[in-house]
Amino acid sequence: MKLVDVYCFCVNEKKSKGGIMELIICKNYEEVSQKASEILIEQLIRKPNSILGLATGSTPVGLYNKLIEAYKRGQVSFKNVITFNLDEYLELDRRHPESYFSFMHKNLFNHIDINEDNIHLPSNNIKTLEGDIKTYNDLLKLHQVDVQVLGIGSNGHIGFNEPGSPFENETFATKLTEQTRNDNLRFFNHIDEVPRSAVTMGIGTIMRSKKIVLIATGLNKADAIFKMLKGPITTALPASALRNHPNLAVIVDELAAKNL
Ligand code: GLP
Fold first, then answer.
1. Would you call 87 a catalytic residue per the annotation?
2. What is the dihedral of CA 118, 134, 213, 64, to 10 degrees?
3. What is the CATH number of the domain that holds 118?
4. Which of 44, 60, 112, 168 could form a disulfide linkage to 204, CB 3.0–4.6 angstroms apart?
């Protein structure tokens, strides 16, 4: 038996609107990455032309490493996979090392056989923003995401849907809270370099995906995970909207699950 089978345990919760939420509590980051990768690998084997919704942040890096390993050992191919990323900073050139475009290439796309034409990230071109957002939304209406990967911000944001973002939003441009800017300061030299705004899929867009896999690790996510799963469903805690999704897996380590 693999280590992950020993440590992770799963609680299935029936939800009032039907559907199942799986809460999978793993020992550590490695096992969270392993468990999430198993879901995605199984999806890619079953449907090689899957449409994946992808996230940035440090949490999914371990998952992406495992997908790269699966590709290298010939278990999966991304040749026919289409991807849509959740969000992108405004105010940063795409070639900036901390843009999400750069992040995704560095941590996943450069290491797999994905067709560059099948990669989609929200545009951050200020001059064409309005039209580009409409195009992104139109594309997402044509391509229903099979599995959407999500992290969570320490304030409960998903993508860059900050507290207060309406649940029905499609992709939109938004301001970042100071908490989020401070959380992301670790990727930059100075707070003034951290973008103040971003483009993000809205919660309405995210909720249209067939399955959602949210991953979170570490003590600084414990409060957000508790409120997401046990608090009221409210725009004040954007991730709480996911409890209305019929096919949600929440994969956390023991630290992020500490308050449950
Ligand atoms: C950013 C991203 C989110 C991500 C969050 C958490 O704000 N826009 O999609 O979930 O960071 O990041 P981390 O995984 O680094 O804690």
1. yes
2. 40
3. 3.40.50.1360
4. 168
Confidence category of residue 20, pLDDT binned at 50, 70, 90: confident
Q: Which domain holds residue 226?
A: 20-253
For residue 220, being part of any structural domain is answered with yes
**pTM flag (> 0.90):** yes
Tell me the best of 29, 33, 59, 179 to mutate to test the pocket of ligand 1, counting ligand atoms within 8 Å of each CB and taking the most. 59
The residue among 149, 175, 11 whose CA lies nearest residue 85 is: 149
Q: Are strands 9-14 and 20-26 parallel, antiparallel or unpaired?
A: antiparallel
Residue 195 lies in a domain: yes
Ligand 1: residues whose CB is within 6 Å? 55-59, 86-87, 151-153, 159-160, 180, 184
Whose CA is closest to atom 13 on ligand 1?
57
Query: Which residues have a Cβ under 8 Å from the Cβ of 127 and sit 6 or more positions away?
Result: none
For residue 75, the CA-to-ligand 1 centroid distance in Å is: 28
Determine what percent of the chain is predicted with pLDDT higher than 90: 92
Contact 220, 154 (CB under 8 A): yes
183: CA distance to ligand 1 center in Å? 9
The total of structural domains in the chain comes to 1
